[in-house]
Amino acid sequence: MSNPVVVRVDLSTRSYDIVIGVDVLDAPSSWQGIGAADSLALIVTNTSVAPHYADRLARTLQPLFAEVGVLALADGEAYKVWRSAELIIEELLRRGADRRATVVALGGGVVGDLAGFAAACYMRGVDCVQVPTTLLAQVDSSVGGKTAINHPLGKNMIGAFHQPRRVIADIAALRTLPRREFVAGLAEVIKYGVIADDSFFSWIETNLAALLAGDAAAIGYAVECSVRIKACVVSADEREAGMRELLNFGHTFGHAIEAGLGFGNWLHGEAVGCGMVLGAKASCRLGLVSEEQALRIERLIASAGLPVVTPTMSADRWLELMRHDKKARGGTIRLVLPDGPGSGKILPVDEGLIRSVIESTASAP
Amino acid sequence: MSNPVVVRVDLSTRSYDIVIGVDVLDAPSSWQGIGAADSLALIVTNTSVAPHYADRLARTLQPLFAEVGVLALADGEAYKVWRSAELIIEELLRRGADRRATVVALGGGVVGDLAGFAAACYMRGVDCVQVPTTLLAQVDSSVGGKTAINHPLGKNMIGAFHQPRRVIADIAALRTLPRREFVAGLAEVIKYGVIADDSFFSWIETNLAALLAGDAAAIGYAVECSVRIKACVVSADEREAGMRELLNFGHTFGHAIEAGLGFGNWLHGEAVGCGMVLGAKASCRLGLVSEEQALRIERLIASAGLPVVTPTMSADRWLELMRHDKKARGGTIRLVLPDGPGSGKILPVDEGLIRSVIESTASAP
What we know:
Strand order of the largest sheet of chain A: 1-2-9-6-5-3-4
Low-confidence stretches of chain A: none
Oligomer: homodimer
Shape of chain A: globular
Number of helices of chain A: 12
Order of helices and strands of chain A: EEEHEHEHEHEEEHHHHHHHEEH
Mean pLDDT of chain A: 95
Largest interface: A-B, 40 and 39 residues
CATH topology of the largest domain in chain A: Dehydroquinate synthase-like, alpha domain
Helix content of chain A: 40-55%
CATH architecture of the largest domain in chain A: Up-down Bundle
CATH class of the largest domain in chain A: Mainly Alpha
Structural class of chain A: alpha/beta
Radius of gyration of chain A: 20 Å
């Protein structure tokens, strides 16, 4: 892979670049065209990421803005709530940020979603640059403009579509990522293979050891392939009126796990990994994929080190939570289901079938 | 005027109609094309408006949705805060609202801004129909998709652009409006005349008595002319990147009055009325309009019963608040200024001049 690789998200006036590479985080070339000599940048990060990258990033931004601030929030999904978004807005107000200010989201999915939502709401929208430092954020949440906070009744229930001005995905930043979080990010990488590109799925099968060993070239290629698929889907369906829903493979089950166990108990990627196993099984029951294909999906998820056995939770509770999913219509649960190698579709699914799939995936008592 | 009049806001896929007329609020024809047999409508209103119109409206909506709910919030600008938006979102979650739910904002500017913002954020955006019941909301805030909540450091600092699905402006609903609020709404009507249409300004001068007497035909015509101007400006500049800023004539001063005295002390329209007097004076000092034209503007505002003398507030405090204005750039205050009959432009303005205009408009000690 050349360094850096640039992938374009094509959305007319809201088009933007995703810069992927080693040490791109503070390379001046990554930031070309960003800045305002009489306005400010606010780097929003968390207390785990800040010590590694906040100073480096601030030094690169200093010549581009009149003022550069850093706001480090507490780390964790539990902080993806309104009060944190409000803290970001208050910091912008305190610094007198105007409409040409830029919010820089430096961190994982929680920071990106939160800072993106605050940027969407501040004065009805200011620029946001996403600098994802987790694999999950690099391959998924930083691209496509979905921003959100959680509500006790459901994940990401409050949010906005607000496309970033740029995404800067530094592969080197993944070196400081705890292994558990890296593995969780692989769930979203595998997702793209299942629903959109079987040759990429095969590539992951072949290169899983290199990915898990932290091989920068392999990881860079996985990020590039993932965001190319995401960029293509988002360009075709920015607001998730159709095709974009496919990117939610594994997520209806996954969100139920997260909400049911309390946010942050399982990582998002872990819940999605287990959710994809459930989704593949449901697909198989409906005759959309062969048992062999469903097993192939389960095998890769398990090999990556992701959970393939459901947590202890009654089927009634699962269904209650799944009915809150944003894809549900009139109380009917709709699932993304693989319907062949590298292909998926969305269908309303009978609750009896869902119940039976959940029960068959629980650990033996 | 024919009944109803329909004005179109042209925004490609987000285009919508403004229906203006007597008793259009619950006329089935006003709601044509709205509805979802397996989703719900939530009427968001306040405790002052609900007794007059909520039941009538709910009866019209019942055949169009699987479920119709009513949520009546406390009345007043003081409630235009996050907690109220959250109450709306919680009611939607409690009722299991999906992405095809419709929020119906029944009330004045506060209800419209709040319900519109909640609709913008709920699952990243559901439909909102605006049913404005105050003159101010009918001629201004219900049209154009600006939604927001307040922050102690500034009005409308947190919000979203979220175009409504339709606006239904019932002239008959203004009969129950307190006179003080009706007069406040006239400020925005006069604003359109000043910055966009001198013949409309003259019409208001001639027909002010009929408007103040509650003549439905005159009021209907004033609403129609106002929204035609607003629809044209919003179609050209949805996100306020240029021309739309002109609609803020009087608002930089006005927002400072509102924030300085505490929201709800002066009505928004009263603050804008006084703000337009200040703006016209600033324009005159800069040689953009004649003294006669500035006086003509002040005379109409005074005749309408709007305040033309500034409240007691130090010039330093005025300037501090005005620097927070969303149009400010790099700390420089920018004002919309009339630059001829029916015409305006936006300019950075020296703080010394602003200070002198404010001091000359205070009541004699």
